[in-house]
Amino acid sequence: MTTSGGSEVDSGPSRKVHDAEKLGVEIPETAHQISTDSWFQAGFVLTTGINSAYVLGYSGTVMVPLSWLGGVIGLLLATAISLYANALIAKLHLLGGKRHIRYRDLAGFIYGKKAYSLTWGLQYVNLFMINTGYIILAGQALKAAYVLFRDDHVMKLPYFIAIAGFVCALFAIGIPHLSALRVWLGVSTVLSLVYIVAALVLSIKDGIKAPPRDYSVPGTHVGKIFTTIGAAANLVFAFNTGMLPEIQATVRKPVVENMLKALYFQFTAGVLPMYAVTFVGYWAYGNSTSAYLLNNVNGPVWVKAFANICAFLQSVIALHIFASPMYEYLDTRFGITGSAFKIQNLTFRITVRGGYLAVNTLVSALLPFLGDFMSLTGAISTFPLTFILANHMYLVAKKDKLTSRQKLWHWLNVCVFGFLSVAAAISALRLIAVDSKHYHVFADL
């Protein structure tokens, strides 16, 4: 493997993280393809996450608890803060003359073995919950399409979640690694545009005809405080993958410059569809906006059905992006290299990836009200990975080159996001306690 400057990075089967042997963490070379993709492809990987089917929920999960002022300012601030934090991580990719192709590799290089393991644990939990959420979203989209034609309650949400999980497994078996998505990223963009445009047009149509809407924040005084904190966690969740080094690993040299281009694309053109559907959905329905906007809209049945099917298919593609670090770990751990269509490799992917997604699907069907648990996951993993760790890693790595004012700025970020992480965790635990009284396992929501 080479750095973006062309200098060699240790080419043996493994290398030590950091120069001090006391940190001794062995980092295996990856079995997946790296350093081949353009910044434009990486940008589409990032925007696929932003404009996934999750975008259909932000009117209800972000705008309703925050209303116009808080929602608009919150989204703009979250965009700027997320771009800044991700740019910090991107700039550390070549730290110490080595390419750090995994988040845990970078943390281990800077801090040592314990941080390597902790970062992998946090990232695994974060991505597992995101993947589980995508399967729930895919199942909900399928059910929404089904009830447009037959609202007979014969097919329940857990059944659709099982179908969604099976389709996700088929896709995972056929696409060996992140770089292999290529044309599927274009397909994902088209699918996203279909359900976003459908939601926008139908929401505008409903909003023009609707009587004055109520934009006040619902709930008791105490409830408003906790839902506001939860909405803040959803804001940062919307923009952050928790796997930026893994995406950057696919980018060809110069890796830092190209990744920054991808990030600028993500946080300019990439966020516009999300902004549009979030604001228009809230404008059209006020505080009665649901957590899945296509359940609010009125219009031709075929349009809503097509939009829901597109949301289902896009969720399958988006899940593959967030599952790729786990796939890379498993393929590297068991030495799965060579042609993706070798019988041995196909068998491995069918067994291992299929088993991983079977667990995801079981959790999805068991707890289809997973949003509360995802808020908790965001609090204990997304905040630390994307904001706390990013700022502190940059502070440690660049400490000799930073002024006192710059150091103070990064410490301020660490402290503020540490506080927000604790507050969001408390809010999520409260939501779980409240909702556990109303929902049951394998619920048909």
TrEMBL record:
Stored Pfam families: Aa_trans
Top-level taxon of the source organism: Eukaryota
Residue ranges annotated for the Amino acid transporter transmembrane domain, each copy included: 36-429
Keywords: Amino-acid transport, Auxin signaling pathway, Membrane, Symport, Transmembrane, Transmembrane helix, Transport
Gene Ontology MF terms: symporter activity
Record-level GO cellular component terms: endomembrane system
Membrane-spanning residues: 68-94, 115-137, 157-176, 183-204, 224-242, 263-285, 305-330, 350-370, 376-396, 408-433
Family listed: Belongs to the amino acid/polyamine transporter 2 family. Amino acid/auxin permease (AAAP) (TC 2.A.18.1) subfamily.
Function comment: Carrier protein involved in proton-driven auxin influx. Mediates the formation of auxin gradient from developing leaves (site of auxin biosynthesis) to tips by contributing to the loading of auxin in vascular tissues and facilitating acropetal (base to tip) auxin transport within inner tissues of the root apex, and basipetal (tip to base) auxin transport within outer tissues of the root apex. May be involved in lateral roots and nodules formation.
Protein name listed in UniProt: Amino acid transporter transmembrane domain-containing protein
